[in-house]
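#lab-general

N.A. 3:47 PM
ok so I finally got the sequence cleaned up, no stray characters, all 117 residues accounted for. can someone with queue access submit it? mine expired

B.Y. 3:52 PM
send it over

N.A. 3:53 PM
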Amino acid sequence: QVQLVESGGGVVQAGGSLRLSCAASGSYFSIFVMGWYRQAPGKQRELVASITRGGNTNCADSVKGRFTISRDNAKNTVYLQMNNLKPEDTAVYYCNVVSSGSFTNYWGQGTQVTVSS
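B.Y. 4:20 PM
back already:
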């Protein structure tokens, strides 16, 4: 069984910063890709950023230059540093992990990020 524990969401004013963390754990668990998705009310869940074990990153155009994804392979933890937050960044942010081999997707419970104008 795989557990994803997210932290770091909250309420911030526009222009502020937040840092999300997601730690993955489980019995023999090798991770291929770690990432963050978000879902705003009435909208589909969308990819924010992802990072492979080797450090290759992918980022949505809407957050480029403001958000940075990183990971600590030794701790199976992924981080999302969010700077210059905008009201349109308001959403529930979900951690996503894809395992090596079977490429199974695992999801965190979600953490709310609210940016006030």
